Amino acid sequence: MRFGSSVVLLATAGVAVAQSVNISSLLQYADALLSANCTSTLESLVSNSTLATCLHVTDLAPILTSNSSIIPYTDKWLADVCYTAPCTNATLTQAATTIISGCAADLTKYNITNATIYDVVGQYPLAREVACLKTTKPFNATNVTAPATPYNTTNGTFCATSILTELQSYLGANLSLPYIATAALGGNATVVQLIEKIPTKALCSDCIFAAVDLIEEQYPGLGNISLGAINGTNTTLNQFLTGTCNATYSITKNGTLPSTITESAVNSTFPFNVTAGNVTYHPSNTSSAIPARNSSIAKRDVDITAAKRRWFGRV
């Protein structure tokens, strides 16, 4: 098993959605897939809504028009998302109901249930908690050009910034949106070959293990997912990580993060305890309700009322 697919998933999933160098062509393609009403609904959500404000969507706009690295823009966006108030449950609920209403025909067409929309939107507390992880041991490389605007390094460097910088170093090129889109489409054989050569040991970082800790605190069954036979032995995700990294870090599943990790999510709505260093953060009264922590992450209640209740409290 190579590290290439894992890096792409962890470092570029958020931007690889732009599956074309030509952004206008991408939007035209999206219009062809979605109804006019759904397109208008989504455009409104990301440009002129309370959700767009708390997600600081405007910070990401320069990525669409620049050929430079996405890392400085991403770092600025993370600082704004993490150091300001999070999206409220009311905002998330409204966003979900807006999508369900404005894209009803499209959801039916693509066999997506309303409960699924609530579940996806309801991942926000976990996603923000992971995105706001910072490390005091960021990746540094001499072949990476220093950004014009220095990264935010208060109480550490954002893990996402560190991981993207490491990926950029392996590729030897700026992670611009056109570059990422070309790589995602397989349009540059050299890029694909470079990704495939990234060593599996690159997974052995405090950031990766901290993210896995938080995700498995909410979804304990994730670590038991089988990756198939590796070196002749059936191996789970956690076995692969701990074996590859020779117990450099451990996966706690209880929110106890590596000592080099700090948590910067202001007024966190993540509904579990998180221990970073000598500080344990407890869920606040605004933390979203979540599903029971079953052993299987695939187990889901498809009842719409239950879905709304488990993510957003009483309905």
Architecture overview:
- By secondary structure, the chain is mainly alpha-helical.
- The chain contains 16 helices and seven strands.
- The termini are far apart.
- The chain is 48% helix and 7% strand.
- It has one domain (4-312).
- Residues 1-24 and 288-302 have low confidence and may be disordered.
Largest sheet: 3 strands, antiparallel
Mean model confidence by pLDDT: 80
Q: What assembly state would you assign to the polypeptide chains in this entry?
A: single chain
Q: What is the overall number of helices?
A: 16
Number of strands: 7
Distance between the termini: 45 Å
Compact summary:
This protein is mainly alpha-helical and 315 residues long. The protein is built from 16 helices and 7 strands.
Strands, helices and their partners?
Layout: H1 4-12, H2 23-33, H3 36-47, H4 50-55, H5 61-65, H6 71-83, H7 89-102, H8 104-109, H9 114-121, H10 124-131, E1 133-135, E2 157-158, H11 159-171, H12 177-184, H13 189-196, H14 206-218, E3 226-230, E4 233-236, H15 237-244, E5 261-263, E6 274-276, E7 279-281, H16 304-312
Antiparallel strand pairs: 1-2, 1-5, 3-4, 6-7
Helix pairs in contact: 1-11, 1-13, 3-7, 6-11, 7-9, 9-16
